[in-house]
Amino acid sequence: MRAGVRLAVDVGEARVGLAATDPDALVATPVMTLRRDKNRNGDIRMIVKIARDRGARLIYVGLPLSLSGEDTPSTQKARDYAAELKRQLTEAQLNTGVQLIDERLTTVSAAEKMRASGRSAREQKEAIDQAAAVEILNHALQMRTAGGAEPGQDVIHSSD
């Protein structure tokens, strides 16, 4: 398995949480929360910039599935977001992969950890997207270690 920075994205309707690993892909830390910019894709452009600046090898995008593993109304939105992210990475001539990864219960887990650490509801609201991205990234790193390969579904850029 190759070392290198991994990013994780938790896509929401209003905000996007971003987390990153160290260069050895061992430790996940929160990076920032971005406002969704559905009209001009400013949030995606910022993720591309961060991927370039950090030399990211791979970006995991959380895929919201139901508890039974079925698609939800948000599933296609995450797929579309990941496809646009991959398109912009390709356009920017970055060889950064994009993988969709199951994110079931990551926001719930992040909220529980924040509550256990004594963060108020207001503090949680401000940081929950980043914390969920950290959960997605930790989950991916655990799966990567256990399986010996990058987890998730490849997002392929099509020039259609």
TrEMBL record:
Q: What class of enzyme is it?
A: hydrolase
What compartments host this protein? Cytoplasm
Q: What is its EC number?
A: 3.1.-.-
Q: What SUPFAM superfamilies would the database entry show?
A: Ribonuclease H-like
List GO terms (cellular component aspect): cytosol
**GO MF terms on file?**
hydrolase activity, acting on ester bonds; nuclease activity
Q: Which UniProt keywords apply?
A: Cytoplasm, Hydrolase, Nuclease, Ribosome biogenesis
Q: Which NCBIfam families match?
A: RNAse_H_YqgF
The entry assigns this protein to a family as follows: Belongs to the YqgF HJR family.
Name of this chain's protein: Putative pre-16S rRNA nuclease
- Annotated source species: Nesterenkonia alkaliphila
